[in-house]
Amino acid sequence: MRIDILTLFPEMFEGVFSKSIIKRAVDAKKVEIHFHNFRNYSTDSHHKVDDTPYGGGPGMVLACQPIFDCVRSLRTENSKIILLTPDGVVYRQKIAYDLAKESHLIFICGHYEGFDERIRSICDLEISIGDYILTGGEIASMVLVDSIVRLLPGVIDEESHLQDSFNQSLLDYPVYTTPRIYEGMEVPSVLLSGDHQKIEEYRYQERVKRTQDRRPDLLSNK
Ligand code: ADE
Known about the structure:
8 helices; Alpha/beta knot; Trp Operon Repressor, Chain A; alpha/beta; 2 domains; 3-stranded mixed beta sheet; 5-stranded parallel beta sheet; 32% helix
């Protein structure tokens, strides 16, 4: 998979993508990630990327030209262009699975108070990571990249994501490690029984119980 990220702040990604599983996936050539500061595509003599809104109002609005030109230089017929915006569809694990099947993703990170409405016309998908406002799309795109890259074949143990929370619309079951008793809290005895069928049943029941308690909406969304 190839991922291109259009951002005014490529430095924001340095720490996040140079560690752990994403770094391993890049080193193993499971994914290539490229950053593009669309300011470099501005044809304005001062490399301006924004301007005041027509009709008045507060703040500055990202203009079309730098983003259109940057996308044009990257897109192929296989590209999926994704705009990060609080008014997009709310991101869920199902979308991560769908996007993990694509070969080329282009993320556009909005910033400042908004972006010219016409930028939506070059996007295939608009995604929000939740009902709150971030200062820009950078952190949202990191969330998407992290959740997609871990699903690429060979990046993590396939069995781990079969067990993920949200698979089958259920949260994950509780897990424990040594010691068996810690500050008076005991590991459930079924996990020490060695009976794999019983353990599986227990875990499934725990997933259902936890989902009913914490996220009943997942059960009705099925
Ligand atoms: N940009 C600002 N807020 C956002 C959000 N919640 N999701 C995606 N992009 C955003």
